């Protein structure tokens, strides 16, 4: 029997779907987690009647990330905007979406994402935006603590290296203890369920494991990775990395507003 094809359509997306928009700005990719707007069924029906079925109401795309966006300079224009949706079945993407600010008859204002295609394209969970870590961390599997070097992390998966033979078993669940450096020492960010889906030997020695992370962690990890992305784009020393391309007292607000205007085009 042929394997059933997993699909996700725009109309199936709801408040329980993990969402983000991936913007290409000045040649850099910046992924911003977003939330399905808190509107009534009647308001959703009004949006679909006015703008068609291929729409998703979103809470303010920029508001949550405004403080971090202040630290990033966007000199050019938005060249591409994609929608990323994650559920228990996988990760789905819609290319070349647009976002508009609209006001409903009830007086509610929302960001309205409009897509060209009904169905999203399913792609490998490891293709989620990744951040490089190269840090020693612990993995727990079957009651045993295993030390690994985590090379990279996305909200969908991670890659790690073991120096000799692999102690982490393929296909069996494990728990990653995600830590990061702080002024007070190591800080535990959280514990995340995952499993190894493939392994390969490295030319210099050691075993590299490619893993998926349970979709239950997607929302938290999207926000964590978005913050790390913006730190990396801006540089650790935020003030020295900002380029004052816009003059005036409100130059930071103008930078943020320029992103909103680009999204509204």
TrEMBL record:
<dbReference type="Pfam" id="PF07238">
    <property type="entry name" value="PilZ"/>
</dbReference>
<protein>
    <submittedName>
        <fullName>PilZ domain-containing protein</fullName>
    </submittedName>
</protein>
<feature type="domain" description="PilZ">
    <location>
        <begin position="124"/>
        <end position="225"/>
    </location>
</feature>
<dbReference type="InterPro" id="IPR009875">
    <property type="entry name" value="PilZ_domain"/>
</dbReference>
<dbReference type="GO" id="GO:0035438">
    <property type="term" value="F:cyclic-di-GMP binding"/>
</dbReference>
